[in-house]
Amino acid sequence: MKKRLFLRGLMVFIAMMLIQARSLQAQKTSETRVWSADNGDGTYKNPILWGDWPDPDIIRVGDDFYMVSTSMHYVPGCPIITSKDLVNWQMAGYAVDHYREDPRYNLKGGEMYLRGSWAATIRHHNGLFYVGFCTPNWGKEKGHFSMCTAKDIKGPWKRTIFPEYLYDPGLFFDDNGKVYVAHGQGKLYVTELASDALSVIGKPRLIWDKSIAVPKGSTAPKGGYGMEGSHVYKVNGYYYITCPAGGTQGWQMCLRSKSIYGPYESKVICQDESSYPGNGLHQGGMVQLKDGSWWFMIMQDRGPIGRVPNLVPVVWKDGWPMLGKDGNSKGVTRYPKPITRKHAAISLPATSDEFSSPKLGLQWQWNHNPDNSKWSLSANKGYLRLHSSFAKDLVWTRNTLTQRVQGPSSEAVVELSLSGLKDGDVAGFGIFQSPYAYIALKQSGRERMLIMVNNGQVIDSVSHFTTPKIWIKAQATDQQFMARFAYSTDGTHFKWMGTPLHMGLGYAWTANRFALFNFNTKKGNIGGYADFNWFHFTGANPSIKAR
């Protein structure tokens, strides 16, 4: 008897080890297909992250680097990532948990697409992290400025909303105890803050109102351009304000003065579109390493995939921070890493999720504020449960859970259990922007139909769909910015459905995203629920073809 129990236990142990080994091998295979900037030989390639991390600002605190990014209407907001070498990054947290200032962030009485957080600035001073951002003017609605503070980068964060409007802010703690924000679009200003950086104590002072000519080699239309996206530094007694100009086809400027209020002189410090023709390197922040070297994290528009960060060395020439190898004002495609550490592992911000933790992974953001009573990770352990609420379409669906589509190509698959759907529910998976597309199950009474929706229209359908679960796949590529969709009833064999999505940017300045959802189209209905077992992400998939 004991021998049989021992053999049975041994067989179970061996089986578990085989499953674990297969899982690790699958994970390793998946990871190798996801874009990584680390070449594994002491060099890196750009972009540092092949996804939407716009308007980056960056700091170093001890041995750690932190970068913050714009997130607009997605919640939580102001994503922050961390690194030890500026090349390998992981999620650290978010500075904003909800937007409480307007019910439209709950999709009540309207929507707040593209508002929320713009062009965040990050600094660390006297033991506190500071993240400031602007919520833009919108028609007749006046925007505002927010400052978030925390002792720990992971939070909790406290948000203070200012009555003042400071567009594209650059927070700066001077060595004389003064605190300033540089801000503005076209016309640039400097405004003094209180010593705790939580209120304004001075009036905005104009520091720049001149237009910038198009530099040689730029494809931008000829004419004069304004600057924005200010970030402030002080080096060897000079104040430096770095600013982009020219938009998508833009370039990077720098202002320099002995006084924070000017007068300022200007210089083009980066002008390069070669790595993605027609799309210039522009907007970001720079940071000094312990060895004294300087580096610039600068973004580049790559269409519906997003605005991607590039890491470029900085060379000081005649008192100016010139980007590129030898300060040639160009980006770099492949370059030695800023910091090479022995036995350092390649790391990337998380993507795949088994939904087995008590909290959502930091890779996820909701479209607008979530209704926390309508989703759960504990109701069916190991699953994400999304309860439906009324919405006429995906645009108005609360609790749409999203994460970035990535380039140069990416693929994601979800497993979805359908037993909890009720009349009027539409549950599925796809890619969200304007336009959007998805595959979903639509419940009508006792009848269940599989539908493929593209740009708000049902393109294809399968009636009398009776299987208790479904696997849905979405693939995207930067080649012609195409995405396509497939489904499976066994998790292995997939069938393409509907028509490809021509990914666009109807919601300007925010990229396409993978999206999980469940909504109900019948007002007054008490909807059901959909259980997502997992979300598996891979990248750089050679099988993706535009068609």
Keywords:
547 residues, mainly beta, 1 helix, 40 strands, 6% helix
Give a description of the structure.
There is one protein chain. This protein is mainly β and 547 residues long. Helices cover 6% and strands 43% of the residues. It contains 1 helix and 40 strands. Strands 4-26-29-39-31-32-33-34 form an 8-stranded antiparallel sheet, with no helix packed on it. A hairpin with a 7-residue loop joins strand 19 (251-257) and strand 20 (265-270). The chain is globular. The termini are far apart. 46% of the residues are buried.
Topology diagram in text:
Layout: H1 2-33, E1 43-45, E2 57-61, E3 64-68, E4 74-75, E5 77-83, E6 89-96, E7 118-125, E8 128-135, E9 144-150, E10 158-162, E11 170-173, E12 179-185, E13 187-193, E14 205-208, E15 212-213, E16 224-225, E17 231-235, E18 238-245, E19 251-257, E20 265-270, E21 282-288, E22 294-301, E23 307-317, E24 320-323, E25 334-336, E26 365-367, E27 375-376, E28 384-387, E29 401-404, E30 409-417, E31 425-432, E32 437-444, E33 447-454, E34 457-462, E35 469-477, E36 482-488, E37 495-496, E38 501-502, E39 513-520, E40 529-539
Antiparallel strand pairs: 1-25, 2-3, 3-5, 4-26, 5-6, 7-8, 8-9, 9-10, 11-12, 12-13, 13-14, 15-16, 17-18, 18-19, 19-20, 21-22, 22-23, 23-24, 26-29, 27-28, 28-40, 29-39, 30-35, 30-40, 31-32, 31-39, 32-33, 33-34, 35-36, 36-37, 36-38
Strand order of the largest sheet: 4-26-29-39-31-32-33-34
Biggest sheet overview: 8 strands, antiparallel
* Mean pLDDT across every amino acid position: 93
Coarse morphology: globular
Judged by helices, strands and strand pairing, the structural class is: mainly beta
If helices are DSSP runs of H or I spanning 4 or more residues, what is the number of helices?
A: 1
**First CA to last CA: what distance?**
63 Å
What is the helix content? Answer: under 10%
Number of strands: 40
Which ranges are low-confidence, i.e. pLDDT below 50, for 5 or more consecutive residues? 1-32
Query: What is the radius of gyration?
Result: 25 Å
